[in-house]
Design a protein that fits this description.
The chain is an all-alpha fold. It contains 8 helices and no strands. It has one domain: TerB-like (Orthogonal Bundle), CATH 1.10.3680.10. It is globular, with a radius of gyration of 15 Å.
């Protein structure tokens, strides 16, 4: 099973990040899901609220069914363990996403960070790091944080 996942990753994700070819939709789904899963793990406490937020974000962003979302999250989880950093994922996002789509990724990251109602310093650091890697301006990083925080406080 591991070799099958590795072959898929080498074919669809790594090759897309190393070339100037158009990035496949599936590779972008894996990259986005991987970052959201890492966000969920940033504070070393995975809550049901965080898992639900990640699942809903992936389903809504990519219009997936429940089974497709579960498969994607499993594949993304496998890829996280094999990766050496975030570059493999953020480079795909940089190649294929518009600035607005990148902001939506940052918004999803903040939603996961605030899902358990407490923002951990490691979660904030991770969002900042990802925002830098996908070239989101600091102003937009802060505005997105405040938007998500305020929405969470009023719900």
């Amino acid at each position: 099973m591991v070799s099958i996942v590795r072959k898929f990753f080498d074919k669809h994700v790594k090759s897309a990040s190393d070339s100037s070819e158009r990035v496949s939709e599936h590779a972008l789904q894996i990259a986005t899901a991987a970052l959201l899963l890492e966000m969920m793990r940033a504070d070393s406490k995975i809550t049901d609220e965080e898992l639900k937020t990640v699942t809903e974000a992936i389903q809504s962003k990519f219009n997936l069914t429940g089974d497709e979302t579960d498969s994607l999250l499993k594949l993304a989880g496998d890829e996280i363990w094999k990766s050496t950093g975030y570059y493999e994922f953020t480079s795909l996002i940089n190649k294929a996403f518009t600035y607005e789509q990148k902001l939506k990724v940052i918004e999803h990251l903040w939603e996961v960070a605030f899902a358990d109602t407490e923002l951990d310093k490691y979660e904030e650091h991770m969002v900042r790091k990802i925002a830098d890697l996908i070239y989101v301006e600091h102003r937009d990083f802060i505005n997105t944080k405040l938007k998500v925080r305020d929405k969470k406080l009023t719900s």
